[in-house]
């Protein structure tokens, strides 16, 4: 998808498998398995989708997938293959040095893992050496001092090297981080979770992060058990989906597999989803 001013592309770091029950929270399996079938370990396949935004001299990446640092036991647990992000960038004529900004919706390893890589000495270093990494301060504070419930979602080598190399920008609230590229704090999934809104011609493209990770989660009760503040997720999702329908947002799903983007529409008084390619 492109215009005279900007080009937007969904790129993928591959796929991840997460427990289906955890992904759908209190929704019974007899209901959610009608949407997506689990494997024999009760895991469902999810995309690791990132959004590439090229606008003039700015080349911004939203989220970075899992990356390439995870040991074999983690790869087995989550059904991970090889990281695809570098290949996806090469296919579009880009190298990591071309990325000028990275927006992380939050610091869970499946969104921030690709932010760093291992160098020849086995040390984690920023993957994108010329980029500033934009993170909400509240999310950073949670990530560096997680509680017992959330600590498994944070891998410190995904983000501490960003601070050590002086590439970290901590945001405090809604901000514009590049021309026409805004972040909006949603909370819910984690403290300081943020979504990204991109002005694209006459419309807005919304990367919802884990507030609405897949098209299946457009239904209000479908809230993951990974969410730190599920009631906040519910209310924020209600308001944002109403705004998305009213304003005609194109929604991008970070974990969508077959359907990664689309529009919310109202047909015969009921909400429906129309997928599109981006």
How would you describe what is shown here?
- The chain is α/β, with parallel strands linked by helices and 278 residues long.
- The protein has one domain: Metallo-beta-lactamase, Chain A (4-Layer Sandwich).
- It is 21% helix and 31% strand.
- It contains eight helices and 15 strands.
- The strands form three sheets. It has a seven-stranded mixed beta sheet with strand order 9-10-11-12-13-14-15.
- 44% of the residues are buried.
Number of domains: 1
Broad CATH class: Alpha Beta
**What is the molecular shape?**
globular
For the record, give the distance between the C-alpha atoms at the N and C termini, rounded to a whole number. Answer: 6 Å
Architecture in CATH? Answer: 4-Layer Sandwich
Describe the sheet with the most strands: 7 strands, mixed
Order of helices and strands: EHHEEHHEHEEEHHEEEEEHEEE
The strands making up the biggest β-sheet line up spatially as 9-10-11-12-13-14-15
User: CATH-wise, what's the superfamily?
Assistant: Ribonuclease Z/Hydroxyacylglutathione hydrolase-like
Determine the fraction of residues in helical runs and give it as a percent range.
Answer: 10-25%
Query: What fraction of residues sit in β-strands?
Result: 25-35%
Give the rounded overall mean pLDDT.
Answer: 95
* Total number of helices: 8
- What CATH calls the topology is Metallo-beta-lactamase, Chain A
Based on CA atoms alone, the radius of gyration comes out at: 18 Å
């Amino acid at each position: 998808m492109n215009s005279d001013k900007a080009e937007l592309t969904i790129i993928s770091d591959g796929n991840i498998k997460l427990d289906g029950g955890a992904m759908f929270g209190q929704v019974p399996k007899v209901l959610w398995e009608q949407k997506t079938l689990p494997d024999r370990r009760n895991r469902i396949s999810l995309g690791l989708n990132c959004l590439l935004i090229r606008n003039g001299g700015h080349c911004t990446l939203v989220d970075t997938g899992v990356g390439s640092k995870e040991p074999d036991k983690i790869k087995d647990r989550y059904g991970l293959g090889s990281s695809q992000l570098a290949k996806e960038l090469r296919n579009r004529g880009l190298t990591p040095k071309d990325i000028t900004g990275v927006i992380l919706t939050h610091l869970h390893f499946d969104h921030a893992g690709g932010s760093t890589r291992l160098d020849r000495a086995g040390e984690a270093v920023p993957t994108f050496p010329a980029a500033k990494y934009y993170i909400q301060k509240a999310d950073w504070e949670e990530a560096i001092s997680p509680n017992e419930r959330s600590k498994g979602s944070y891998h410190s080598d995904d983000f501490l090297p960003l601070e050590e190399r002086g590439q970290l920008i901590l945001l405090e609230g809604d901000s514009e981080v590049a021309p026409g590229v805004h972040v909006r704090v949603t909370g819910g999934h984690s403290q300081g979770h943020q979504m990204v809104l991109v002005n694209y011609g006459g419309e807005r493209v919304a990367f919802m992060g884990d507030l609405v990770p897949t098209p299946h989660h457009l239904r209000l009760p479908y809230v993951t058990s990974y969410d730190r503040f599920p009631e906040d997720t519910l209310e924020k999702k209600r308001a944002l989906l109403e705004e998305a329908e009213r304003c005609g947002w194109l929604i991008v799903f970070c974990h969508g597999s077959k359907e990664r983007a689309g529009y919310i529409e109202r047909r015969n008084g009921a909400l429906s989803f129309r997928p599109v390619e981006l």
